[in-house]
Amino acid sequence: MTAERFGLPQPWLTFALFVVWQFLSDGVTGASVVMGLILAIGIPLITHRFWPENPRICRPWALIPLLLVVLYDIVVASVSVTILILSPRQPRSAFVAYPLTLKDPLAITLLASTVSLTPGTVSADVNDEGTLLLIHALDVDDDAELIRSIEQRYEKPLLEIFQ
Amino acid sequence: MEQLPFIAELIISILLVAGGFFSLVGAFGLVRLPDFYARLHGPTKATTLGVGSVVVASMAYFTLHTGELAITELLVTVFLFMTAPVSANFLAKAAMHRKVSCMEGTRGEPWDQ
User: What domains are there in chain A, each with its CATH number?
Assistant: First the structure.
């Protein structure tokens, strides 16, 4: 609320844009800070109508352990997908409907992206009510096990961050 | 050009070879996997680690070479991580909309709404 009064409808977006601009401009200089501030304040002002509602981020620091878990999973699962591709056996694919506990659209997007980034699973669709996430798994034996691991590893930390 | 220590060169080379290998496997997956949905996994996945290795190798090389911390490469990862799932999602939605057939033995149903 207070941030909105100072012309910052989305403080987190402003922060992210500023940091990304410093990375892009090859070294933090006076010029890059000024330009970064202009962009970081201007872009949210222009685009905030496109965002249905501001995501409520309660514990941003809880994102760090989640990131580490995701990075670890990417490495482990990449290796298993590599082995699957190089071995002659046929994969056992499945469409799995994952029941979402998350409500926030941004949180659901983050979960779907995480599922897509970790090898072996792609999120294919979210139903209109936002209660089911359709996941295509490349090679699974047990659908319930997949759902449980996604819930434990990714959805729980996201729930903590957003609720 | 100043010489990097042998061990640094070795690690960077291993990362580059690993990156190339994972990208190659991702591409090979496109040929080898049996149906559209399975082929989606190849390029979005094995490539994540492939590009990741190359990015880490590049960061290590330029950090050691110039003596300054090179972190611009992190942006490559960030943008890749933001865009790859979205394009995979669109491809999957388009495929379900067109009722692309799955391979035999696929459990569960794709839906179209």
Answer: 2-50 (no CATH), 60-162 (3.30.70)
